[in-house]
Structure formats: structure tokens, C-alpha cells
Amino acid sequence: MTSDALKKLLDEVAAGQTKPGQALKRLKSLPFEDLGFARVDHHRALRQGFPEVIFGQGKTPAQIVSIAQALHAQGAAVLVTRVSPAKAKAVRLKFPELEYHAQASCLARPAREGARPGRGLIAVVAAGTSDLPVAEEAVLTARIMGSKVETVYDVGVSGLHRLLASRTVLERATCFVVVAGMEGALPSVVAGMVDKPVIAVPTSVGYGTAFGGLAALLGMLNSCSPGLSVVNIDNGFGAGYLAGMIDHLE
Fold this sequence. Notes:
With 250 residues, this protein is α/β, with parallel strands linked by helices. The protein has helices spanning 3-14, 20-27, 44-48, 61-73, 85-94, 132-144, 161-164, 167-172, 186-191, 214-221, 236-247; strands spanning 33-34, 39-40, 54-55, 78-81, 99-101, 106-109, 121-126, 148-152, 175-180, 198-202, 228-230.
């Protein structure tokens, strides 16, 4: 239930096109729907502009299906993150409308009436090919929120000429998600080149003293480039969501 959908429903009741009892039936699951093992937050789109997202890791296929169907019944977009291929296959047997995005490890289905378009362009920039699963999670998240996204991949600091070759995208973008592992230097470089907000995503890619992404995280947190914020290790969803929110600011 979005604010636009709620206003439309109230207008229909006022105009006599929808009976109060019918409206009550559609509103009865607000603010949440109790499934026993989960309380699906149908009120979230009204509060935050986007419906609840399902974290698939640790949930059974049956639990994912139940939550996804509850969201879908309200016409909301459905996004399930951190889903293995085997689990995705089991979910799609019960809910085939969900599309599996293997590289992002996500299941998704757009909102019934489509998402409100964003105002600009989000550029998702990844240092290396090994960072693409995290980058693609950010891409899918922002796109299902209604944002336009372009990608610039494999442009790490070991060959900055590759990044400079994509300068036209950097100049057009209004928000950036920059994904990097190893020492995590790329977000600082990008933030030093552009006048738009940069969201840095450290990944767990790297040898020994990369410490599963901790070195990249600390490097990004200690960046001297202004206009840069940092999300948690491998949190492509969080970065894509924040970029989508920025892109929808009035």
C-alpha cells in the first residue's frame, strides 16, 4: 500500500465507486499482516516509500513464498535478497512470477502498477569482476525502486585509464554506488572526481590481510574525499536502496 494507492482508494470511496466495506477489506492488513512466523509490514511503503524487502538467507523456501505472496497480494514490488540457486528454484515452483537474478542472488517482481520513476541517473561502479555479485544486488535494488541505472565495471585503481574512459557516464550520473574489495581505494578516487554523492560498498574480496572486507571498509571510512558515505561489507542492497532514496528526493 503506497501513499498514491491509499489516496486513490479514499477518492474512490468519496466518489461512491468503492463501498466502505470493500475499502475496509483492503485496509485490514494495515499496518501489518501476521503470518505466525513473520509480521509482514504493509505499512512500510507509506512510511518509507518502498515496501518491505525479504532477506532470504536463513528463511525456508516456504517462508519466502508466504511473505512474497502477501506482499504481491497488495500489489507491492517483491524483492528477496541472498537467495541461493537451489532455494530460488524451490521458491519459483510455488511462485513462478518471481524472476531469479543469479548474479545478484535475488528474486524479484516489480510492483503491479510500476514504481515511481527516479529523477536522475545512478551509476554503479565496480572495481573488479569479482565484485559484481555485490554490484548487481545494488543495481537490481535501485531499478526495482524505479531508478535509472548504468554500470561501469572492472575499472579498479590498478588501471585508472579504464575509469577515465567512462567519464561521460560519470558526468551524467546524479548519484554513485562504488563497489570495491582488496584495499578499497576506488570510491575515494571516484568521489574526488565528481560533485555528486558517492555511496561506497566494501566487498569481502581479497587475500589474507584484506580480512574478509575489513581492510576495504576501514580504507573507505578513512577516505579524505568529501561527499562519500560507506555501507557495510557486501551490502549491495543497502547501497542500492540508499541511492534509490536519494534519486527520489523531491
